[in-house]
Amino acid sequence: MHRRLFIKNISLLSAITPIMPFLTYGKMNFPENSKLKFIIASDGHFGQPNTDFVGSHKLLIDSIHLEENVDFVIFNGDLIHDDPKWMPEVKNVYDSLKVPYYTVKGNHDRISESEWEKIWGIPANYSFVVQDKYGFILANSSNEAGDYLCIDLNFLRERLDSFSSLTFVFICIHISQNDWTRHGVACQNVLDLIASYPNIKAVFHGHDHDVNGIMLNQKKPYLWSGHFGGSWGSSFPGYRICEVGEDGKVVTYLKSMKEGLILNGHTL
Q: What is the mean pLDDT of residues 221-238?
């Protein structure tokens, strides 16, 4: 597949996965009793010219509402497409969700960090804990100019240290902190720090609309969600689900919005 030519220097399980119903893909087993279920949706690009951004967001919201027992949703960057006027508009859309949600800043979310916090009620670098067991870190990888940046290493280290007693930690960063995709950035210090914490179960990225699988670095899994909006990328827009079972098993799978098919899945 010519689309894989840009992927280099990685341990690759699936970067751009074949599109097929989940029952024919892999050997992932769903948890019998999920204790946590959350959704990662990235790259909605609300307001992008010549796209049906209203329709794609409605389809996403409707699809999420069909899912059972969702604890919360994380929008992993590029909520809007450049023009700050769209940020309050997309917030109105997200507010129609029947479950809590959190937002991650992307390179097309071109507002200041102070304005971001004013609109969303959380800073661009943020963390939270669920059920006293699951830690989540939402790290900013861009700025008002839309530059591709390494995340704040001091913030990440401080948060990881504070989460050291938790069983599971998940990290959401819009831009890949490795140059293994066309639009990633080389941030070896970030990768090394992540590798040094055994309770980190997964890192979730957006940004690369045509990447929807899993890559490994120092035995840590990094996952992409393709996109659900925007003008390019996978021809099957969708979102990623992650579940943690009562037995501690962590599984994640990508679903298409329109067909509701599970496109790929992995046990972490």
A: 96
